[in-house]
Amino acid sequence: MSPTKPKHRKPTLADQADRYKLYGQSVQEPDHEVAFFDQAYKEAYGSKPKLLREDFCGTFAVCCEWVKRGKQRQAIGVDLDPEPLNWGRAHNLAKLSGNQQQRVNLLQQDVRRTDKVKADVLAAQNFSFWIFKTRQDLLRYFKVAYANLSKRGILVADMMGGADCWLENNQDVRKVKSFKYIWDCVRFNPITHDCLFHIHFKFKDGSRLEEAFTYDWRFWTLPEVCELMREAGFRETKIYWEGEDEENWFATPTAPADACWLAYVVGVK
Ligand SMILES: C[S@@+](CC[C@H](N)C(=O)[O-])C[C@H]1O[C@@H](n2cnc3c(N)ncnc32)[C@H](O)[C@@H]1O
Question: How far is the CA of 79 from the centre of ligand 1 (A)?
Fold first, then answer.
């Protein structure tokens, strides 16, 4: 029997998809992030910050937004992985003017390295610091973050929580442009708070990009994170909760026990 020639199938939308582009369209709002950093810095020090350090920067969309908002502004993006950094160079950095590009500095290195240049705002966004799973490891990271800040600096880290976030095999599906974004909680261990999440994408032709991104994290809580930031040296921690309009954030000591919430923790040096 002669071998049958493989049929060439038409590429699906999933085959043609760019996972970083889909991620950006689904979860990133760099203009909102930068507006919040300005607000939090002003509320801490009464002035405008100039130098941003974006730890776990991936495609460093926030750095690019930052330098667009003032000629004095500089940004440092830090990530271990060359793949998202190169994607960001080709797609985000390339859209900036020559002068703006010169004010973005990228470091392919571990976020736990202390550098000479000190930032006004150090951002650790999209729950990325949850890769540190023990108090010891997270404390070490917060100490380095403290050392990488200027005297008048803030550390901004986002957090999520609420009963819905702890449900295993729970998928949050959202329509974004012409595709669906699926946030999939695969595992949550209530004893250790080890958790596993995937992001999948589904397209109009029925094809899917499974496990486009995977996160193996510890699900930290707000009081733990505040305690560790203070232990690392921050003189004050503030929790910013989302206003009803989902546009504004306000510092508060109490909040409703929503089933699913987002918040920012701000450590003031
Ligand atoms: C959840 S992604 C967030 C990307 C980015 N904040 C965004 O929203 O596009 C986490 C990023 O952290 C990076 N990363 C993980 N551990 C790191 C470490 N120890 N030092 C530097 N980067 C790290 C990964 O390479 C990945 O790009």
Answer: 6
Phi, psi of 210 (to 5 degrees): -85, 140
User: Helix, strand, or coil here: 80?
Assistant: coil
Chain-centroid distance, C-alpha 186: 20
Average pLDDT over residues 17-28: 96
Q: Which of 79, 92, 108 to probe ligand 1 with, by most ligand atoms within 8 A of CB?
A: 79
- Residue nearest ligand 1's atom 13 by CA: 56
Pocket of ligand 1 (CB under 6 A): 28, 56-59, 78-81, 84, 110-111, 125-126, 128, 131
What CATH code would you report for 19-159+220-268? Answer: 3.40.50.150
DSSP state of 17: -
Domain ranges of the chain: 19-159+220-268, 164-216
> Nearest residue CA, atom 6 of ligand 1?
57
Chain position carrying tokens 């994170």: 225
Q: Whose CA is nearest to atom 9 of ligand 1?
A: 58
- Measured between alpha carbons, how far is 48 from 35 in angstroms, rounded to an integer? 11
Would you state the structure tokens that stand for residue 255, as one six-digit string? 């909040």
Query: Helix, strand or coil for residue 253?
Result: coil
Condensed to tens digits (0 to 9), the pLDDT of residues 142-159 reads: 999 999 999 999 999 999
